[in-house]
Amino acid sequence: MSIPLTHLLVFTTLLFLVGLYGVLTRRNAVGILISIEIMLNAVNINFVAFGSTLKTSPDLGQVFVIFIIVLAAATAAVGLAIVLAIYRNQKTIYMDEIDLLKW
Amino acid sequence: MVTHPILIPLFPLASFIVITFFGKWFKEKSAWIAILASAASCFISLKAIAQVIHGTTFYQSFVWLTINQIPLEFGISIDPLAAMMLFVVTFVGTLIVIYSTGYMHDDLRYPRFFAYLSLFLFSMLGLVLSSTLVQMYLFWELVGLCSYFLIGFWFEKKSAAEAGRKAFITNRIGDIGFFLGIATFFYATRTVRFADIQPELIHAHAGSLVLSISALLLFCGAVGKSAQFPLHVWLPDAMEGPTPVSALIHAATMVAAGIYLVARLFPLFHALPHVSEVVAVIGTITAFGAAFFALTQLDIKKVLAYSTISQLGYMMAALGVGGMTAGAFHLMTHAFFKALLFLGAGSVIHGTGVQDMREMGGLRKSMPITFWTFAVATVAIAGIPPLSGFWSKDEILTSAFESDHLIIFWILIMTAAMTSFYMFRLFFLTFFGKTRSHSHPHESPLVMTIPLSILAIGSAVIGLPGSPWMHHWFQNFLSTHPEELHMNSFVMTISIATSVFGLAAAFMFYIINPAIPERFAKKNWFLYAASQNKLWIDEIYQATFIRWFKQIANIAFKFDAEVVDRTVNEVGLKTVLVSRIKNWVDQYIVDGLVNLTGWLTRKISAVLRLFQTGYIHNYLFVLLLGILIIVYSILNT
Predict the structure, then answer these.
(1) Are B612 and A95 a contacting pair at CB < 8 A?
(2) In this structure, is residue A60 part of a structural domain?
(3) Which pick of B333, B357, B521, B608 has the fewest CB atoms within 10 Å?
């Protein structure tokens, strides 16, 4: 039996909001990166869900998901490298203490 | 061996440069440099003169400027006349430089004196060797400058400084005439080369008024330099300079430059009888007047100065009446005996420390060499045969006698009598009678007495080449076309008689009965005062020309101060005012606009700055809001 599309959409929306909340409220840069990953995964599930329900082109949604996963890995690698570099320079990874943009 | 006449003026120039730059270092030795340089140029001159006597003339030149296709040359030329001057300048010059080492001993600016002397010798030789009028004018001014330097050599003395200035300014008046003369001469004949000034050229332009004017103006230069009336006033004052300078510049060489100029341009003057008459009259007036002034002077150098003016007047008169060779001959003999007289006077001044003849007397015993050499010079200038002065003076008198101007002849005869009188008066007052000096006179050192002796020999014999005994060899040497020269026994007899008369009168007055002069002066008080005060010419100049000149200068000064300066000041003040206004506009309007722009920008950006918090969360939140608005608007359409 298959899970109805509506349930999946509600779930992904909640997951996305959790990620968004995390991005907006976490002070820790690593936390923000993790929250972004959550949001990306919510999107992934959306792709798969629509892909299996609409049946126009069953593989299309999954191909996008693979892309996004690869992208996410790249994002994480770059993001963590930036966080490391920031830590070396600023001795902190709390984003509210890094205010060089308005100095 | 080839002679390089160009070296003749270059040696003294080199000496001048070396002493100027290294004089501090050489100190006393700088005199040796000057002596060596003048001796070297004397040596080369003598060689060149020897060749000129054998018939070669030197002429080297290069084109200096070209004006309207007419080349203006710069070069050297030695013809017989230049050779004669060359001989006088280098020979007498060398002796005087040697003499100066003794006379200027212990002077503060000893090296500088020799530098000036060298510069003078350079300029004078350049003048003598000039091949064009323009070149001569350059050196003419240079000798004037040297004269100024050397008259004012002891410039700490106010009178010396003023005398230098007077000489310079008086000469300048003549020089302006000279300069204009060159210009008009060039205008009339299209040439300034001496070699071109031949009778043919002058005859081609004869009757042209411009040529006559140019001749008069050129003569003006000679009047200034050779201290002829009415520009003679500077020469007596020039005696403020050191005595060797008086001997070299103001007796033997520089003042003869005017005579030399007229002799050089003789074809010009000879072709213009009216101008020649002016020359003769000026010369005669000068000769007579200056001899008259010399009669009563008390300063030994002043007597000699007036004597120089008088003799220069003689030469000028000779040139004026057509006796070119006579004038040039007298120039040469005069250079010798007058240099000797001045050096002798210098020796006396050196020995006694005074210049006033009333404080001398009886120096015969204490200064024997000076006495004997001075005696030779006195006899020579008084015109007693067979010494040099007699022959040349006789030539002048003969040419005056043979011209149509008998008045000039008789005035010159009277002048000759006065010359003899004042020279023997000087001689007797200085060397005979009782010693009136307060110090103990002593004979001068050898460096001074040896030049005196050489000059004495020269003064004695230099007249012989022009005497009938040698068939007027000198005159024929100078003259391009030999004149018919012969002795005039009438003139000769009168000449000797006047000289002896002058001698006898001086002997009466100053040896036999020294009371006569005073009585004589009292009886003829007006004449005495006129002579003593030089006919008040200086005072007249002071009261007329100089006063007028000062008034003009005052007016010019007032004009300058009241009009020119005031205008300038007013313009300045107005400029300041305008600037103030401009400053205000700049500060409050221009700057105000700029500041307003900045101020506005700051105020607006203060609001905008509120959006830039610097917190990544805020930005993300705004991003989210944006997305929501977009989504919302999409959904609503």
Answers:
(1) no
(2) yes
(3) B608
User: In the numeric block, which tokens belong to residue B350?
Assistant: 């050196």
> Is residue A12 a part of any domain in this protein?
yes
ipTM entry: 0.77
pLDDT of res. A90: 86
A93 at interface of B, judged by CB pairs closer than 8 A? no
The answer to whether residue B1 scores a pLDDT higher than 50 is no
Measure the CA–CA gap between B63 and B75, rounded to whole angstroms: 8
Q: Which residues contact B403 (CB under 8 A, 6 or more apart)?
A: B321, B322, B323
C-alpha dihedral (A69, A74, A75, A77), degrees to nearest 10: 130
* Minimum distance, in Å, between the CA of residue A1 and any CA atom of chain B: 33
Residues on chain B touching A32 (C-beta within 8 angstroms):
616
Say if A103 falls within a structural domain. no
Q: Please judge whether B620 and A24 are an interchain contact, meaning their C-beta atoms are less than 8 angstroms apart.
A: yes
Q: How many angstroms separate the first and last alpha carbons of chain B?
A: 124
Write down the mean pLDDT value for chain B: 86
pLDDT exceeds cutoff 60 at B374: yes
Statement: residue B252 has pLDDT above 60 = yes
In chain A, positions 60-89, which contact chain B (CB-CB < 8 Å)?
A: none
Number of domains in chain A: 1
Q: What distances in angstroms separate CA B413 from CA A1, B284, B444, one per listed residue?
A: 167, 11, 36
Q: Which site among A16, A17, A23, A90 would you substitute to test the B interface, given the most B Cβ atoms closer than 10 Å to its Cβ? A: A23
Q: Residues with Cβ < 8 Å from B311, sequence gap 6 or more?
A: B287, B330, B334, B338, B381, B419
Q: What is the pLDDT of residue B594?
A: 93
Per DSSP, the three-state class of B354 is: coil
The answer, yes or no, to whether residue B544 has pLDDT greater than 90, is: no
Predicted pLDDT of residue A34: 92
B623 at A interface, C-beta within 8 A = no
Whole-model pTM: value is 0.75
What residues make up the domain containing A51?
A: 5-97
Mutation target vs A (from B612, B615, B628; most A CBs, 10 A cutoff): B615
Tell me which residue in A23, A32, A99 faces B615 most closely, judged by beta carbons. Answer: A99
Domain assignment present for A37: yes
In chain B, which residues have their Cβ closer than 8 Å to the Cβ of A99?
A: 614-615
CB proximity B621 to A under 8 Å:
yes
Contact A95 B616 (CB under 8 A): yes
What pLDDT sits at residue B480?
64
CA B616 to chain A, closest CA, distance in angstroms equals 7
d(CA B140, CA B258): 9
What CATH number is attached to the domain comprising A13?
1.10.287.3510
List, for residues B210-243, the tens digit of each pLDDT value. Answer: 888 999 999 999 999 988 888 888 888 888 888 8
Cβ distance of B621 and A96 shorter than 8 Å: no
* CB contact residues (below 8 A), chain A span 6-65, against chain B: 20, 23-25, 32
Pick the closest to residue B593 from B603, B585, B602, B605 (CA basis): B585
Alpha-helical regions (H) of A1-103: 5-25, 29-54, 60-90
To which residue do tokens 């250079």 refer?
Answer: B335
Please indicate whether, in this complex, the C-beta atoms of A96 and B617 are within 8 angstroms of each other. yes
**What confidence category does residue B487 fall into, taking pLDDT thresholds of 50, 70 and 90?**
low
